[in-house]
Amino acid sequence: MGNIDFDPKKAAHYDDLARKAVFGYEQLFKMLIALLVEKQNESANVLVVGCGTGMELTTFGNHMPNWQMTGVDPSEEMIKISKTKVDDLELSERIKVLKGFVEDLPEEEKYDSATLIFVLRFISEEEQKLSLLKNIAMRLRSGAKLAIVDQYGDPRLDNFQFMSKAWRNFMKLSGLSSELAIQIAIQAAEQSFFTETEIQKLLYEAGFTKANRFYNSFIHGGWIVQKK
Ligand SMILES: C[S@@+](CC[C@H](N)C(=O)[O-])C[C@H]1O[C@@H](n2cnc3c(N)ncnc32)[C@H](O)[C@@H]1O
Fold first, then answer.
1. Among 2, 76, 104, 227, which one is most buried in terms of CB atoms within 10 A?
2. For residues 78 and 19, what is the distance between their CA atoms, to the nearest angstrom?
C-alpha cells in the first residue's frame, strides 16, 4: 500500500484495498489481540496510534469486551470513518477516537498496550520516527507491549526486489488490476523503508526491549516489543 490510502478522497476505499494488498490483513488484527492479551476477560487500556478507518478499534472492540481504547489519527477523513464504525457497532462507551498526534495525549494516562500498524512508513526522517516511538513509550506503563507492522527491507538488495515482485503478483491474484498493483508498489517505494535491524534499533532507543518478529509477508513485517 502507498499513500493512496492517505488521500482523503480514497480513504473510504482503504479497507478494500488493504485486504487485497496485505496478505492476511484481517487475520493480522486477531493476531494482534493474541499477542497483546495477558489473560482472558482482562480489563486493559489500549492505545491505537494511526487508527485509520478503525480496523484495530472494531476488531479489538468486538473480541475484547473489557478493553478500553483510545484511537488517535491526524487525518480528519480517517477519523470520521473510524468514529462512524465505532458508533454503528455501539462501542463508543469503551472507545475514544481523537483527531491528532500521540503527543497531544496527556502523559499522565498510562496504557497497558499500544499498536502502530502501517503508520511508520509515512514518517521519512529517522528522528521523527524515534520521536513518535518515544512519545508512545512515555504513555505506556512499564512492561506494556507495543505491536508494530510496516513495510521494511533494503530496496537495493536482490532479495527485496524478488519479494516486491512476488507482492505485486499477490495483489493481482487478490483481484487488483495490474495497473493498480503497480501503482501501489510504486507509492510504497516512495515511502520510508527501514531494515529490520534499523527498526529494532529505533525501538530499543525509544525505551523498548524484547523485540520479536511475529509476522512476515513479502515486504511487510510485524514486531512486538515491551516497554522497559
Ligand atoms: C495506512 S493507514 C493504517 C490504518 C490502520 N492502522 C490500519 O492498519 O488499517 C495509516 C494511518 O496513519 C495515520 N498517520 C500518519 N502519520 C501519523 C502520525 N504521525 N501519528 C499517528 N497517525 C499517523 C494516517 O492518517 C493513516 O490513517
1. 227
2. 17
How are beta strands 67-73 and 111-117 bridged, if at all? unpaired
Residue 211: burial class (beta carbons within 10 Å; 0-12, 13-18, 19+) = middle
Angle value at C-alpha 73, between 115 and 44, nearest 5 degrees = 40
The CA 120 to ligand 1 mean position distance, Å, reads 8
Domain coordinates in residue numbering, the chain? 3-227
Q: How confident is the model at residue 39 (pLDDT cuts 50, 70, 90)?
A: confident
Secondary structure letter of residue 110 according to DSSP: P
What pTM, to 2 d.p., does this model score?
A: 0.95
Longest dimension (CA), the chain: 49
Ligand 1 atom nearest to 149, measured from its CA: 8
- Residue 74 alpha carbon, nearest atom of ligand 1: 25
Please tell me if the CB atom of residue 151 comes closer than 6 angstroms to any atom of ligand 1. Answer: no
Instruction: Specify the CATH number for 3-227; select among 3.40.50.150, 3.30.420.40, 3.90.1150.10, 3.40.50.2300.
Output: 3.40.50.150
C-alpha cell of residue 80: 470520521
Q: What would the pLDDT profile of 22-31 be if each residue is shown by its tens digit?
A: 999 999 999 9
- Is 117 close to ligand 1, i.e. is its CB under 6 Å away? yes
Q: What does the block give as the cell for 54? A: 478503525
